[in-house]
Amino acid sequence: MSQFRQITKDGIWQNNPALVQLLGLCPLLAVSTTVANSLGLGLVTLMVLTCSNLLISCLRSQLNSTTRLPAQILIIASFVTCADVLLQAYWYELHRGIGLFVALIVTNCTLLARAESFASRNSLGMATLDGFMMGLGFLLVLVLLGAIREVLGQGTLLADMHLLFGEPARSWKISLGNPGILLAVLPPGAFLTFGCLIAARNWFAQRLAFTHAELDTSSLIHRE
């Protein structure tokens, strides 16, 4: 259970692929103009990462140092192609906005890194959990960034959720009454907002580490 807990902690917080490893920044910064786009790409990445880790772990005993990397790329590309076709078939309007970046998932260093460093060396259950948690960590950052940029840039929240959930989701739109800040939806705004998220995460992590150190010191003094 401690290993499962550590994998969960690594994916979501301690070794988050976006905020800590700084991987997959191209789609992260380009797509995160709205919550709908961010959620769409995040779910696709989560699905591809989880399924790829699962299959690569299943085949790890059949692969050697020569065939492992080509097989991993082929598996990831196959799942990305399936996801791209499904998006075109069932969520065509969403695909028009994020389709280019779905194809670029093949080159996402997060998937290749997890496939090589974890999935090819661990059991099926651990590899699947690692893929899911790393994908979830990436999705959470992507949605948070999209929400901030949508609120600041357009003055709305959940404006395009019908692209994912159909016409009833149009009523989910929240208008905040401000005209928005153009910079937030432009590339410089993406970099600035993402930089603030990294700074906030690092500050909070340092505060947690400092608090834990104080508690450990206090506990040691009491024992003495």
Structure description:
It is a single chain. With 224 residues, this protein is mostly helical. Helix content is 73%, strand content 2%. The chain is built from 10 helices and 2 strands, in the order H-H-H-H-H-H-H-E-H-E-H-H. Strands 1-2 form a two-stranded antiparallel sheet. Helix 3 crosses helix 5 and helix 4 (68-90) crosses helix 6 (109-117). The relative contact order is 0.16.
What topology emerges from the helices and strands here?
Blueprint lengths: L1 H13 L10 H7 L3 H24 L9 H23 L1 H12 L5 H9 L6 H31 L1 E2 L4 H4 L8 E2 L6 H4 L1 H37 L1
Antiparallel strand pairs: 1-2
Helix pairs in contact: 1-7, 2-5, 3-4, 3-5, 3-6, 3-7, 4-5, 4-6
Key features of this structure:
224 residues; mainly alpha; two-stranded antiparallel sheet; 2 strands; flat
Short account of what is shown:
By secondary structure, this protein is mostly helical. Helix content is 73%, strand content 2%. It has one domain.
Mean pLDDT level: 87
Largest beta sheet: what is the strand line-up?
1-2
Radius of gyration: 20 Å
Structural class: mainly alpha
Q: In angstroms, what separates the terminal alpha carbons?
A: 32 Å
Beta strands, count? 2
* Share of residues in helices: over 70%
